Amino acid sequence: MQDANTLLQNIFGYPSFRGQQAEIVAHVAAGGHALVLMPTGGGKSLCYQIPALMRPGVGIVVSPLIALMQDQVAALTEVGVAAACLNSATGADEARDIARQARAGTLDMLYVAPERLLMPRFLDFLDSLNLALFAIDEAHCVSHWGHDFRPEYQQLGLLAQRFPSVPRLALTATADLPTRADIQHYLGLQESPVFLSSFDRPNLFYQVVEKHNAKKQLLSFIQGEFPGVSGIVYCLSRKRVEETAEWLAENGIHALPYHAGLSHEVREANQRAFLRDDAVVMVATVAFGMGIDKPDVRFVAHIDMPKSPESFYQESGRAGRDGLPAVSWLCYGLNDVVQLSRMIQESEMAEQQKQVESTKLDAMLGICETASCRRQQILAHFGEDIAPCGHCDNCLSPPITFDASTAVQKLLSCIYRVGQRYPAGHVVDVLLGRSNQWVTSAGHDQLSTFGIGRELNQRAWRSVIRQLVARKILQVDVVRGQSLVLTELCRPLLKGQEAIQLRPLADKDRGSRTQADR
Ligand code: ADP
Ligand code: ZN
């Protein structure tokens, strides 16, 4: 058997292994199964490429992403590894040629799409080969919890029955606990070791602000902290991408739009400009970023709330790949939550999947509303337990909380009095004693709660409502007109049996990091 370090140096040209790579390679080369959880860019590929070369036979790599397979095969071929890929785009002649090489034992690695692998004829073909290992890349695709569920991935479990002695290595960058459990279950890895790398990105500074006027806030963030650098701004819709790119451009920032509705040529040109120049701000939907490897992105800004902690982590993780300080800046509001919930409810997803998505959305709102360390909250989502990081917005300027028991009682009674059938805006109008046409036509100016909340302004009330939604004391009924609805958790608060601490108006009072530094 060839030595792992020699292969690493002679073939791949790297002086040493990174993180847990050496351990994983040794374990798999010795015939072990494993689950590898490593953030994007962590170096998962070498974890199966090197053992595949060390062990006799051909290494089978299952991947759902054709473009990525082709890139890898090209890169391997370049360094002299005999690699090939089989997918829907492979012609019959080429496929026959690849099969011949595999049988002759001259192929080191074969990349296949899962649906191809699962074809009975292909499995028979595998029976006739000497197999080095199975690497199952993007293994989160087995799980409904993953962001990219693929039913055929669950059937990969048959590899464990049919080829029990061939090492199975599942790899993913999505490491939340339910996904992890699903991978172990479906791929028969319950008894196998889990190699978990830290998902922490120490050079990323997290800052979350409440939304008043997203475009203006974004502009002052960029002008104040990051003039003339590369950045990415994520928006929820195509329309918002275009408006925002225009607005930034009008204000002297080299901003370009990117979304799936633009022509192929425009997208290509904008992406090229972003990669080439060092001061382009890409304003994009989440369609942008997969496979983009630009090291010097100094900030990622979200001007709408991402749909889950994983999306947030992946998207903001595109900043600071070079290891130098970078910022993840997120601007969010209650309307984002309402809009995202509605998208979930109105989608074609199965009921179970809707539940999953709603739970993730709640977790994301929790990260936004937390008064404690952001990094701790984010990593807890991936099953990592760290001490407060000392360099996120909440660690650097801990939010001051106040006893909001009376205010919360007023709000909850008001929601109760309007029959739990009105959205936040209406409830706040009643609290502030604004007798506009909707309030008067509903007779809500006659309620005992009309005008009882004048000690807070509209913005403060919205902040209180958001925090209560984040803590599941209130729910937004997106099916029925976004009405605010009380949950079970309201009872002790309404009865005055429990006190509640909330954050007051956050970012306006707290200022940004650089202002505090100056
Ligand atoms: P992942 O699949 O986890 O996202 P990759 O396997 O694509 O990550 O590796 C990310 C980058 O890190 C690649 O450019 C790869 O060449 C590089 N890399 C991986 N391992 C090492 C190492 N031991 N030393 C130096 N560079 C490495
Ligand atoms: Zn922190």
TrEMBL record:
One annotated GO biological process: DNA replication
Which superkingdom? Bacteria
Cofactor(s) for this protein?
Mg(2+); Zn(2+)
Enzyme class per UniProt: isomerase
Listed EC numbers: 5.6.2.4
What would you give as a GO molecular function for this chain, any one? 3'-5' DNA helicase activity
Which GO cellular component terms, listed alphabetically, does the Swiss-Prot or TrEMBL entry include? bacterial nucleoid; cytoplasm; replisome
Write down the InterPro entries for this protein, in alphabetical order: DEAD/DEAH_box_helicase_dom (IPR011545), DNA_helicase_ATP-dep_RecQ (IPR004589), DNA_helicase_ATP-dep_RecQ_bac (IPR006293), Helicase_ATP-bd (IPR014001), Helicase_C-like (IPR001650), HRDC-like_sf (IPR010997), HRDC_dom (IPR002121), HRDC_dom_sf (IPR044876)
**Pfam families recorded:** DEAD (PF00270), Helicase_C (PF00271), HRDC (PF00570), RecQ_Zn_bind (PF16124), RQC (PF09382)
Q: Which residues form the Helicase ATP-binding domain?
A: 25-193
Q: Which family does it belong to?
A: Belongs to the helicase family. RecQ subfamily.
Protein name as it appears in the record: DNA helicase RecQ
Q: Which organism is it from?
A: Paludibacterium purpuratum
